[in-house]
From TrEMBL:
It is an enzyme of class 4 (lyase). InterPro entries: Aldolase_TIM, Indole-3-glycerol_P_synth, Indole-3-glycerol_P_synth_dom, RibuloseP-bd_barrel. Pathway: Amino-acid biosynthesis; L-tryptophan biosynthesis; L-tryptophan from chorismate: step 4/5. Belongs to the TrpC family. It comes from the Bacteria. One of its GO terms (biological process) is L-tryptophan biosynthetic process. It catalyses: 1-(2-carboxyphenylamino)-1-deoxy-D-ribulose 5-phosphate + H(+) = (1S,2R)-1-C-(indol-3-yl)glycerol 3-phosphate + CO2 + H2O. Residues 4-254 form the Indole-3-glycerol phosphate synthase domain. This is Indole-3-glycerol phosphate synthase. Its EC number is 4.1.1.48. It comes from Aequorivita antarctica. GO terms for molecular function: indole-3-glycerol-phosphate synthase activity; phosphoribosylanthranilate isomerase activity.
Length: 260
């Protein structure tokens, strides 16, 4: 069993319980369900820096990253720093996040927000919308080609942007779908947590230009970003490098200034 298998097995149980507590027809009545969403893909396309800054308290690979800072201070700091999108981890069991985090982020910033979650059921896409997300993450390693198709179609119907995450060519081949806006190459292998930026360089050539290319995980210096831009990447998802410091917003600000 890999950690990803553990997480998805846990998610199946979690989602079954949630569906009982708040069925989709109730989610559809949440005030934020009617909110007009903002496109993360568009925001990245017109940006010269392209940073998506992530709020992440802990992770299975690093345990605690930062549980002292307040989410609203982190995300407002990220926005002020010039981030083009905010990623909020909503998984509680493995990452210490919650849907309340998403609500607080939505109240705090006006840039697009990505719900970072292990989505294994369409229910979670309705939930993302009800709690104020503008975009969702789909992970090719957790889903079949048919599920990727169905889930991205549903997200588009709900006016949510789709970031589809891949880690190898095989996953990429089933991910080039019409309702996908952004392809994210995860430099971290979710099966063993090893980080290798080469994954982005290698897969970049196989991603058609109609998708916004995003490089995710393990990015800690601006030189890497400048280099990855030459491979066509327009978005860069950064969590730990900001979160591990006392003032993530300030760290992001100094980082983004060096990119301008
Ligand atoms: O903290 P990092 O190494 O900068 O990585 C951020 C982000 O890419 C990472 O948290 C992530 C990428 N894909 C995921 C899927 C699930 C949970 C987390 C992730």
């Amino acid at each position: 069993m890999t950690i990803l298998d553990n997480i998805t097995a846990y998610k199946l149980k979690e989602v079954a319980a949630k569906k009982e507590a708040i069925p989709v027809r109730l989610l559809e009545k949440f005030p934020l369900f009617a909110k007009e969403t903002k496109s993360l893909a568009e925001a990245l396309r017109i940006s010269t820096t392209g940073i998506i800054a992530e709020h992440k308290r802990r992770s299975p690979s690093k345990s605690v990253i930062n549980d002292k800072v307040l989410l609203h201070e982190v995300v407002s700091g990220y926005e002020l720093a010039g981030a083009k999108g905010i990623s909020v981890l909503t998984d509680s069991n493995f990452f210490g996040g919650s849907l309340d985090d998403l609500l607080v982020a939505e109240k705090t910033v006006s840039i697009p927000i990505l719900r970072k979650e292990f989505i294994i059921d369409p229910y979670q896409i309705y939930e993302a919308k009800a709690y104020g997300a503008d975009a969702i993450l789909l992970i090719a390693a957790c889903l079949s080609a048919e599920e990727l198709k169905q889930f991205s179609h549903l997200a588009k119907n709900l006016k949510l942007d789709v970031l589809l995450e891949v880690h190898n060519s095989e996953e990429l081949q089933k991910s080039l779908l019409p309702n996908v806006d952004m392809i994210g190459v995860n430099n971290r292998n979710l099966k063993n947590f090893k980080v290798n930026i080469e994954t982005s360089r290698k897969l970049s050539k196989e991603i058609p230009t109609d998708f916004v290319k995003i490089s995710e995980s393990g990015i800690s210096d601006v030189e890497t970003i400048k280099e990855l831009r030459t491979y066509g990447f327009e978005g860069f998802l950064i969590g730990e490098n900001f979160m591990k410091t006392e003032n993530p917003g300030e760290t992001a600000k100094q980082f983004i200034e060096k990119l301008r």
